[in-house]
Amino acid sequence: MISTDDFKARRSLLAATFEPNKLDSLLVTALPNIRYLSGFTGSNGILCITPSESVLFTDPRYAVQSALEVSCKVKTIAGPLLPAIARHIKSRKLRNIGFEQTRISFNSYNFLRENLPLGAVLLPQQDLIESLRMVKSPAEIDCIRRAVRTNSKAFQKALHFVRPGVTESALAAEIDYYMRRYGATGPAFETIVASGQRAALPHARPSSHSVASNQLLLIDMGAVQDGYSSDMTRTVFLGMPAPKWKKAYNAVLEAQLAAISAVRQGVRADKPDLAARKVLKKSGLDRAFTHSTGHGLGLEIHEPPRVGRKEKTILQAGMVITIEPGIYIEGEGGIRIEDTVLVTANGCEILTPTPKTLTII
Q1: 104 and 269 in contact (C-beta within 8 Å)?
Q2: What backbone phi and psi angles, to 5 degrees, belong to 197?
Q3: How much is the pLDDT for 240?
Q4: Pairing of strands 96-100, 25-28
């Protein structure tokens, strides 16, 4: 679990970025970032951080919860939080106030701008906290490992319910049920179950469509445990797959393994993507690969770094990413294979224990 000292250390690291960015404070409005810096898991809060203090503003629903979760000062506000933030800025004589430019509404920005004291300015900031979050601590990695194991256990159990006639929605419900049964607080995203031609939709939503014999079945699922996400995709076959689908599956698997082999500290984030595309090109399937090879995950299911074309981020030990090449052929179906992977100094560790060999049900 994440300790009180961890949260304090994170706030100190963040405050160390203020001087280079000409800030004397930062307003944190994104709930995942608030959790990362304070431990607060409620649904309403704003964190104001200066080099000398951190104050969480929330409402009375979270008075008891925040006292249990948060080590910094907490102010419980009856009513909207922004007027209290404006008063706090004035009382602390803050002048250069950073804000998360992609994590605040236009109305909230306008309110703050119109209620700043004379001489104070709002300074947009992007990815100050997200850049810290990219490299996970050992405690965070342990949380992700648990989420990964829970995800895989739920998948193995759900396979028992796969049969012709079961609907995609019913199968997704079983998956979500077993995630919670095995310890997750819920799915990390809406579970994807897509069969037959619908497997050609990379982000298909489960439907009333029934699974049929001699079809592909693509399942993309993630569990949240201790606040941290996992992500895994497997494609299975009901009945005997046609030779072309066996060949396509083997090509996607080879591409995924090539991408994983390219993951290590010091490598640019486009290299695994290029490795996957090179393999698929040999099979003439590169044009059917329509998305990036992966993404970071942690407190959110999609975090930096992105693993794709032209990505220049240098991978570092402690980053946790997905590797998930896939191919999608309209009117026919699709195949994707995805693992959660930990970047290490000498390569990477595949955290996902679920086998990737061709599964025929």
Answers
A1: no
A2: -60, -25
A3: 85
A4: parallel
Question: How far is Cα 48 from Cα 34, in angstroms, rounded to an integer?
Answer: 10
The second-level CATH assignment, the architecture, of 4-133 is 3-Layer(aba) Sandwich (3.40)
Residue 292 sits at φ, ψ, to 5 deg, of -75, 165
Dist. CA 255–CA 157, nearest whole Å: 27
φ, ψ for residue 82, nearest 5 deg = -60, -40
Q: How many angstroms separate the CA atoms of 201 and 329, rounded?
A: 9
| Structure tokens belonging to residue 316 | 């570092």
Digit-coded pLDDT (tens) for 293-331:
999 999 999 999 999 999 999 999 999 999 999 999 999
Cβ–Cβ < 8 Å for 298, 144: yes
Q: Check for a shared fold between 4-133 and 138-360.
A: no
| Cβ-contact 250, 243 below 8 angstroms | no
Phi, psi of 108 (to 5 degrees): -65, -45
Nearest residue to 32 (alpha-carbon basis) of 304, 307, 357: 304
CA distances from 91 to 87, 109, 213 (A): 6, 19, 68
* CATH, range 138-360: 3.90.230.10
Per-residue model confidence (pLDDT) at position 279: 98
Per the CB < 8 A criterion, the answer to whether 177 and 157 are in contact is: no
pLDDT tens figures, 99-141: 999 999 999 999 999 999 999 999 999 999 999 999 999 999 9
The pTM of this model reads: 0.95
| Arithmetic mean of pLDDT, 82-98 | 97
Give, to the nearest 10 degrees, the angle between helix 31-38 and helix 4-15: 110
- With b for 16 or more beta-carbon neighbours within 10 A and e for fewer, the 255-276 pattern comes to bbbbbbebbbbebbbbbbbebb
Kindly state the tokens that stand for 147.
């989420």
- Residues 19-32 pLDDT 10s: 999 999 999 999 99
